[in-house]
Structure prediction request, 817 residues.
Amino acid sequence: MAHEEKDGYDPSAVENKWQRLWDERGTNVFTREELESAEDPYYNLMMFPYPSAEGLHVGNIYAFTGADVHGRYHRLRGKTVFEPMGFDAFGIHSENFALKIGTHPMDLIPSNVANFTRQLRRIGGMFDWNHVVDTTHPSYYKWTQWIFLQFFKAGLAERKEAPVNWCPSCMTVLANEQVIGGACERCGTPVEQRRIAQWFFKITKYAQRLLDNLETIDWSPTTIKAQSNWLGRSTGAQLRFPVVDADGNETGDVVEVYTTRPDTVFGATYMVLSPEHPLVETVTDDGLRVPVYAYVDAAGKKDLVARQKADKTKTGVPTGGYCRNPATGEVIPIWVADYVLMEYGTGAIMAVPGHDERDFEFAQQFELPIRRVVAGPEHDADTPLEEAYVGPGSLVNSAAFDGTNVSESVETVTAWAAEQGWGEAKVNFRLHDWCISRQRYWGPPIPIVYCESCGPVGVPESDLPVELPRIDDFRPDDSGISPLARVEEWYRTECPECGAAARRETDVSDTFLDSGWYFIRYPSADVDDAPFDPAITKKWLPVNTYIGGNEHAVLHLLYSRFITMVLSDLGHIDFEEPYDVFRAHGLIIRDGAKMSKSKGNVIVPDPIIEEFGADAFRTYLMFLGPFEEGGDYRAGGIQGPFGFLHRLWDSAVGATDDPADPDVERKVHQTIHQVTEQIPALGYNTSIAAMMECLNVIRAGGRSASRAEIEPLVVMVAPFAPHLAEEIWERFGHQGSIFDGDNWPAYDESKAVETTVEVAIQVNGKRRAAIQVAADAPEASVVAAARVDENIARYLADVEERRVIYVPGRLVNFVVG
RNA sequence: GCCGGGGUGGCGGAACGGUAGACGCGGCGGCCUCAAAAGCCGCUGUCCGCAAGGGCGUGCGGGUUCGAUUCCCGCCCCCGGCACCA
Prediction:
């Protein structure tokens, strides 16, 4: 009995032991000197969590484990792997939760962090606990503020009054990226439009570079595509339509429009301004001011909500003003309609109802003229339009351009407009500047002081951090002003430039600014006189591999690229892309839906780890599907990997010193080959399957393993089940951690070669038999052997043989007929 | 509507254009045990057949090929993202 207990697999004993030893020996942590002198550095990054009160859920653990497996693999191959962990703990989510349960974020977050830390240790991640980053700690946000100041000094941070997305429930401004279908991504409340003075980062200046660089980085294609769509580059032309009075004389005002189809300018039969367009007032006829202003007013109120509803019924009003179409010379009416958005292009369009679906619908509704200027192969110049025609064809009703193919006409018409001075080619992006102001409490104060005479002044770097004061009343209100604006003793200060009485900025910054640079901070987390140490940064960055969720494809990943680019331009770092490789992991699905608290299908990991151990849990999560695609979580599924580890343990603990059996050794080397190829490619599920198969061979017929057979398997399983691997490694008599040094098994091709192979015999592509032949048997002898197979002979008896296909080692196919 | 990713046994999932269903879960039968856990052995796509063997099978319809889950064309459905972006 006692003997049983000593040698039986007891996950919690093994895991406790090794987690303790890793801590005691500092297995996973680096000193500054070690970071400085690392020989083969590999920076393995995963997206840091928001430390919620609920603790880690299976989705988090899935992502972390997948990334940890990657890091551990590279470490077993002899690399020096830095794998840090941190907490993205500022933001509305924490603040709202604190409000809900009646506590203070400054009390809530440390206890959440402690709980997360406990859980993260328990799953056996290879985290460097000496380099933890907590974005809410003054030692971190001091440097977040420093980054703001660098942007400010470089003219890349700008304060402007702008229409912003306002969530009436969260009572704060949201970035465009945080508005989903017109509603707040966090609480689902319809978003309103407000005009508030905000700080913006000029990310649009970097749009082209952010797009171009996508070609140079090795990222998941889905993420690349999402970023590229989000940047939304389009090419076209900016055209100017002069405003004319009732007599057709030019007033001097010009409506500037952006279009991707300048070739259809001859079909522009009216103009549309967005309700917020500055020219609305100017062009509106006095007799129409009442309806126009009423429309503009209504649009402003409902704005983002109503505009982004699925209902796309067009509304609009005529202004009574007119433009001259510079191509045709015709006078055309100017309308105001909310289907034209102020945020895109120039906020005004030329409407070509014949060849744009939205314009067509609008023109139909308000009985505006619809003119064909493109004729497809089925049409002529006068074919009536039943709907907007957007297909290929050639221009008609377009004066000198008639007959030109649309594929070339964009260019020729633009050139003509340029020659005449009313337009030029233009590239446009969908991307907007990044609004970083938040009228909330739980974030880093924006380090700006407003002075009557000096204007907005950056807080001197020596005065950082601008500490977030602990205040009891941190509730937001509907005024659009931060809770900090209620704390006079905090916001009253002196102008850093002239010393006059001044007032601090009371907004805090967006959490995406916190997470936009944390990866640069990690290796320098213990440096307190600079945001990052130059030498260490040079050695460790950019990040080798970043693994995270694709929900951040256009938020965090775009902002962190932008910040990196700016820091590079400002000379602080010498790389402009933060992550060499990015891989998006899949999602854990349960009951047909993504595992999430709102869906109510979350699995709490702790009891599972308690029962089966972290190793089995990790292995199961990596086994349940391709890591980059996610998979279905099923409660009983862990039995398979648990049993596997159990058998592996039993075989290893009872291993003999006999030499390896050649047949088993062959399987072992085939497995080494496969696993070595698949793990770095994140093919975790098939790697585990291969190792299971290998163990099945080792144990076939109840045979005992020899140590030579099983030791390579133990090393290969170590990324998935690190505690178990360490324990067996130690029992095999090795000194120190299995993760110290290059312990990955070497693949020997000569040992993996099969001597005999099974060859399938097909007749007309259908498998009719299989024969065993020597692996190096010549074609003729294989075909001859195939021919005399009893079953095959029957099929070949009375038919003509037309062809024989031979695929070495695989099959022989007799084509008969 | 647009952009991604998918549709394979009861289930999760494997398959360089080459033996479809590896590996695992679940199920059935058996061994070990006082019992349980763990472990071990066998069977397990479906239909016909005692068997040998054969028919049918990777969402649907076509095509290319000696051979298609894989490539091409046209559909259907599911998941994720974006959405009046001119």
In short: Confidence is low (pLDDT under 50) at residues 1-5 of chain A. Chain A is about 35% helix and 20% strand.
